[in-house]
Amino acid sequence: MSSAEPLIAVAMSGGVDSSVVAGLLQQQGCRVIGLTMQLWNQRRLPELIPEGGSAGRCCSLDDVYDARAVASILGIPSYVVNFEERFEREVVKPFIDDYLAGRTPIPCTACNNFIKFDQFLEIADGVGAEKIATGHYARLSFHESSGRYQMRTGADCHKDQTYFLFGLTQEQLARTMFPIGDLSKPQVRELARELGLPVAEKNDSQEICFVPNGDYAAFIEAYLREQSINSRTPAGEIVDTNGNRLGEHTGTHHFTVGQRRGLRIAAGEPLYVVATEPATQRVIVGRNQELLRSSLVARDVNWLSIGPIRDSREAQVKIRNKHVPAQAMLAPTGDDSRIEVRFDEPQRAITPGQAAVFYEGDLVLGGGWID
Questions:
Q1: pTM for this prediction
Q2: Residue 308 CA to chain centroid, in angstroms?
Q3: Which residue of 16, 37, 79, 122 has the lowest C-beta tally within 10 Å?
Q4: Same domain, 327 and 279
Q5: Residue 297: which CATH number?
């Protein structure tokens, strides 16, 4: 392997996907360096750590250890880079602010936008890396006629992660590689076994890395206490869509649109959260059909594989990561940063703070945040 080969910085999380990325690139003759991001001090807010530890989260201390072990087996240099301060500023605090404002945030997307494909690229520059590579299930190509990098869904539809990647820029895509985008998860695990990697059977992370017990409301309250901020959220009323009082709650941040459990109200039929109003401290509930909406407006739209549209365009739109893309019409608003989405069929639980991501088949057109 020649030192003239370009250096690639692999974001090694300690999981099987990024570990296989490092191994594949090395097999292809690339010069590889592993960089593991330290994002959150796992010892903070110890009252939230469940008995037996917080298995299942990404970016834990065990993950750092696993990433180093894999790098040692592959014989590549590896370093831990501390992004805790920026992660707290760009991901954790906005997460809390969103919940308190009645939105349901996606911290993994914010982490991609502001950490993994932003500050990580700055660190890659510092070590002389020409490109970065991650273990995301997505595919990239360059479209000659448009001069744009295009993103397509991962070949494994069950693992596709493009919903969380809609905010990436052309400049970031030009320096990014997704080496396992054409593979299925079973194929990735088999490659890990062939490479002799100890993480071949490691479970995928399931929880948000800074919420150890999965209780977002408890995390918000514990964080505010730690910061000496009044964590007492005012109680309020639970009302139906006609304004009739049905019960009380201890804070709107305990609720999100579409929620059914935990309402603690007696009703003759199933009721769901239709909306939250932090300004009035009201939680509004209704029947399932009252969750249906025919349209939404997305803000801060990022056009990924195509430029901003000037005319209405058909697309398939995801409003949650596990949502089956729904047929819709994208309607320009006269502001490139905002788009109206008109669904062919009403969609359930369109939630402020979540993302609306636009597809044309497997091509990711772009996306924005639901207002």
A1: 0.93
A2: 23
A3: 122
A4: no
A5: 2.40.30.10
Q: Supply the residues annotated as catalytic.
A: 111, 209
Task: Report how far apart, in Å, the C-alpha atoms of 268 and of each of 105, 129, 273 are.
Answer: 32, 62, 16
Q: Whole-angstrom Cα distance, residue 76 to residue 73?
A: 8
Q: What stretch of H or E contains 74?
A: helix 61-74
Structure-token pair, residue 352:
């402020």
Spell out the residues 6+ positions from residue 83 whose beta carbon is closer than 8 angstroms to its own: 37, 38, 39, 115, 119, 120
Residue 102, domain extent: 7-135+179-194
pLDDT tens by residue, the chain, 371 residues: 445 688 999 999 999 999 999 999 999 999 999 999 999 988 888 888 777 655 555 667 789 999 999 999 999 999 999 999 999 999 999 999 999 999 999 999 999 999 999 999 999 999 999 999 999 999 999 999 999 999 999 999 999 999 999 999 999 999 999 999 999 999 999 999 999 999 999 998 767 889 888 899 999 999 999 998 876 667 899 999 999 999 999 999 999 999 999 898 988 889 999 999 999 999 999 999 999 999 999 999 999 999 999 999 999 999 999 999 999 999 999 999 999 999 999 999 999 999 999 999 999 999 999 99
